[in-house]
UniProtKB/TrEMBL annotation:
Belongs to the helicase family. RecQ subfamily. This is DNA helicase. It holds the Pfam family DEAD. One of its GO terms (cellular component) is nucleus. GO terms for biological process: double-strand break repair via homologous recombination. InterPro entries: DEAD/DEAH_box_helicase_dom, DNA_helicase_ATP-dep_RecQ, Helicase_ATP-bd, P-loop_NTPase.
Amino acid sequence: HIHSTPALTAPLPFGNVEEQFGSLDLIAASNDSKLSVLKTIFGHDSFRGKQVEAINAILEGKNCLIVMPTGGGKSVCYSVPAIVSGGVTVVICPLLSLLMDQVNMLRSKELNVCYLNSSVPQSDRDVIVHNMLSEAPDYNFVFLTPETATSSDIVDVLSKMKSNGTLTYIVIDECHCIDMWGFDFRPAYGNLGMLASLNCQVIALTATCTPRTEEIILSSLNLTSATTIRQTCDRRNISLIVKPKKGDEKEQATNMIVNEHNGQCGIVYCTERATTLDISYCLQTKGVNATYFNGALDPYKKKAKVSYL
C-alpha cells in the first residue's frame, strides 16, 4: 500500500545533530568511536549479543550477513558503523511500514534521513536525488524499497555516488525475503544482486535464516566472500504451543483468549485482513478491549491505532 502513504521527504537540518550531540566527526574520531556513537546518539551504555562482532566486521570492510533475533538490535549493527564511517548509507527495506518504523526511529535521534518509493512526488524525488548526487549529501541514511533500489535511474544515482565517494554501505534488511519473495511475488528482491556491480560494501540483515536460505541469499546478492555473524534465535521467554482446530476457529480462538488469558495483553495474527476485523469484533462481544490493524487502513487510522496501543 505504497501509494496511500504520504511521503516524509523534507530533510532535517544537519545542524540539529551537531547542536544536540556535537560534531558527528568528533564523535567518530573519539578513542572508542563505536561506544561514543552508541551512548551519545542511541542512549545505550553497552553493546549486547553479537553487536560488537558485527560492527567490527563491518568497519573492517567485510560484506556481512547478520542473523539476529527480532529485538536483538540489528539496526544498531548498521547504524553505528554508518555514523562512524560517514557518508551515506542506503537501506533497502521490503515493507513500507517497516521502512517508516526505521525512518522515524533514526529521525527521533535527530539524524538526517529520507526515503524514496513510488509514493514520493516527482518534485520531492528530484530534490532528494539532487542532494544525493552532491559532493557532500546531507543525508546520513536513504531508505529504498527493492523496486526503487533496482530501478535503472536509482542504480545510476548510486553508481555516481560510489564514484563520488559518498556511498558508504548498502544495507538489505529482512534479506530472507530474497528466498521467500525474490522468485515470483517480489522479483525486485531477486534482482538486488545487480547492486554488486557498484562494488559497495553490503550488509544483509535477517532474523530468519536456515543454512539453505543463507546460501540462497549470498548467491543471489553475488556475495562470494561474506562474513556470517549468527546469534542464536532461541528466545527462552517465548514458547510455541500448537492446538488442534475444533469447529469454528474464530470462536475457539476468542474463547481461549477469554478463558485462558483474561486481563492479559496479546496479539492475534490473521492470514486475511477481513479476519482481523472479525476476531476483534468477536473479542469485543465477549467484553475484551480489542481493535484491529491491517494494511488496508489509511495512514491516519493506522497512526491513531498505533498511538492507542
